[in-house]
Amino acid sequence: MSGKSSESKDIPLIVVSSRLPYQIPASHDTQSNKKLTKSVSGLVTALEGLSEESLWIGGVIKDDVEEFKEHLPAGENQKIELHPVPIESTIYNKHKKWCNVILWFVFHGMMLSYVKKIADECHDYWESYKKVNQVYAESIKEQLSKQVKNAIVWIHDYHLFLVPNLLKQLLAEKPLKIRYRIGFFLHIPFPPVETFEQIPNYQEILDGMLGYDSIGFHTRKYRDNFLKCCEKHKGCTFKPLTDDSYELQLGREGRKVLVQVVPAGIVYKTFSDQSKEEFSEKFPEDLKTWVNECSKNPKTLLIGVDRIDHTKGLLRKVDAFQELLEKRKLSHKVFFLQIAVPCRDTEPKYEELKKELKNRVGNFKYQSNIRLHLESLSQQDLSVLYKKADVALVTPLIDGLNLVALEYIACQPAEPGVLILSKKTGAAEYIHDDDALKVDPENEQEMEETMYQAISMNSKERRERMKRLQHQVQEKFISERWVQLSLKPLRERVEHIAKL
């Protein structure tokens, strides 16, 4: 991805998110020639299927913008230009606080008592949330002004709910001679009405979402929750267009919003190809030795890949694994590697979880059977790990979709492993019960029994299940498909108004 100017080019697509695919590490070597690292997020993975010419707008702390531009890697994808939006650090951090504590927990239906407790303290954070959305609206308007005639704006996730109406206000004050449509995709669950109402200022958030021309969700459940909120709080009506899309109308003669279900995906071939490589030079040597030893027949290696987040069920996973070793007398044979990437370390609740996870693993009865790796890994190294792992434990308490499950499937060799998948993931709504081993992540006994079923499964059944899983992923969860289906209605609307 390049950082070239877009002023002289007509870019039909503007992608907008809270982050760009590269970031400046929280602590980095000032002497290093490569200060940017690849962002670790499902959004970045999903958007790897974006192949058309486009501009990607994302936030960067104002004091870091010049450094960011200076160290952008050149030549990775010449079709996508990156545009960092400078945001004052104080406002940036308060915006993150609102997103990571209030919105994240409520949308996942977790820690609601904690949210209620701190809600009164968060008015200042809400004001910063609005200010950041305003900065994005101004940046989008600036980029729209450089387009020749048409443009599509595609905004991602809960950090930017308010942008469309703020953008419309700016354009009303100073109109542009350009036809554009603006779409939105929510990468996390949309909660039931009574949970959504726990958000302070939820009415303003709903108003913001209804400013989009199209809204995408991973699953029908999330879509239906959203439609019920709109019906209750805004008096909206809606009618089905297909099984996966509805037309929502604001009032009897009001504007119409397309609400559709399009699950995100991965670039399947990239993961499949990288799984055939070896570990990179940056992969820790001691971990490589441990993994290679634990994945040799007749030993069995289980793997988990998660961010350190309350939604991921990390502690339950460790407890269920210890129960497996004790109950089945398997400490000589079964091993578990948990990749747990720290995130939001400035938030006390996340730091507490990280500390508790380290203590849980540190006090694990069978120390030689478990490894906890607290750093992110490259996509290549993850792909090789997926290939070597006999079982993938994808067991979050709730997840919008979960791309790790799809990545694991794409990386499986001729003698594949087994996917254990939480029933609470969006992916579980699509993946057939006869293919993955589905589990209730809050039931430790069921978790243990499912692990034992996975490691006991014969080769023939593993191959049959994985063959069907790989077919499902290639049919339903391809990033290019998600991009195409999400943008198609926006393009059609722009073409329609161009003919008027």
From TrEMBL:
InterPro entries per record: Glyco_trans_20
Protein origin, superkingdom: Eukaryota
Stored Pfam families: Glyco_transf_20
Coiled coil ranges: none
MF annotations from Gene Ontology: alpha,alpha-trehalose-phosphate synthase (UDP-forming) activity; trehalose-phosphatase activity
Xref: SUPFAM superfamilies: UDP-Glycosyltransferase/glycogen phosphorylase
GO biological process: trehalose biosynthetic process
Name recorded for this polypeptide: Alpha,alpha-trehalose-phosphate synthase [UDP-forming]-like isoform X1
